[in-house]
Design brief:
With about 240 residues, this protein is an alpha/beta fold. Helix content is about 45%, strand content about 10%. The protein is built from ten helices and six strands. Helix 1 packs across helix 2. The radius of gyration is 19 Å and the shape is globular. It starts with 10 loop residues before the first strand and ends in a 10-residue tail after the last helix.
Length: about 240
């Protein structure tokens, strides 16, 4: 991994989904509300199974999107077809079906409670966003949840042709932030995609481990963003990582 010793951190580059925005919570509530309204929940063993299968089909299709095999809207269609195929159903128009789900999803959008206090405490840094997603989708979501104005830049994989953990994605995020990689710390909820990817690109990294699953991880870690300001003040990022 690239060395970043001796440079002062001046900027924070953030992941969005499940870091700032409660994507998993909105996804679960949205799909269960939508299936219930369609009378389809009884097609599954339980609500938890329905959500787990929807999430699994999302992960599979989204990996294909990130690999460049599918466009953003196309991966949504693939998700619908795969999910409904599990219960022997089809959607006459997958775009319309997904739009119905998205309406339910948007009713459950929310910022994690620790986000605004952390951003306020870190007001002395420049803040930018880097996401493996669509710029149009993320712009709309960030505006709806009141966060967009907090960040000077937004870079998404669909516009740059590179997805995390590729170094090019992180370097594009730093360029948009107007800072060299060694002066930027990346904060995200995925150990490999976010933290390891950022380190390999020459950034600093903090893993947001909300589920507290990563004891013994090889990068600085916080369980809540409430701990991030203090971590940025006290950690010597050139030294062996301190686990929080």
């Amino acid at each position: 991994m690239a060395e970043t010793v001796g440079e002062e951190v001046r900027g924070v580059l953030w992941d969005i989904d499940d870091t700032l925005f409660d994507y998993s919570g909105a996804e679960r509530a949205g799909i269960l509300e939508y299936l219930g309204g369609l009378g389809l929940l009884d097609s599954f063993v339980s609500a938890e199974q329905a959500h787990a299968l929807w999430n699994a089909d999302m992960e599979t299709a989204y990996e294909r999107f990130l690999a460049g095999e599918l466009g953003f809207q196309e991966q949504r269609r693939v998700r619908v077809e795969a999910f409904l195929g599990r219960i022997g159903r089809t959607a006459p128009d997958p775009d319309v079906w997904f739009a119905g789900y998205l309406d339910a999803f948007t009713r459950h959008r929310r910022v994690f409670d620790d986000v605004i206090p952390a951003l306020d405490a870190l007001s002395g840094y420049r803040h930018g966003l880097l996401s493996n997603s669509s710029s149009r989708y993320q712009e709309d979501k960030l505006a709806a949840i009141g966060l967009r104005g907090r960040f000077v830049s937004l870079v998404c994989s669909d516009e740059i042709g590179h997805a995390k953990p590729a170094p090019e994605a992180f370097l594009a995020g730093c360029a948009a932030l107007g800072l060299p990689p060694g002066q930027v710390v990346y904060v995200g909820d995925k150990l490999t995609t976010d933290a390891h990817g950022a380190l390999a690109a020459g950034l600093r990294a903090v893993w947001l481990d909300r589920g507290d699953v990563g004891e013994g991880a090889d990068v600085p870690r916080v369980r809540t963003l409430a701990d991030l300001p203090e971590l940025l003040r006290v950690i010597d990022f050139g030294a062996p990582p301190t686990i929080r």
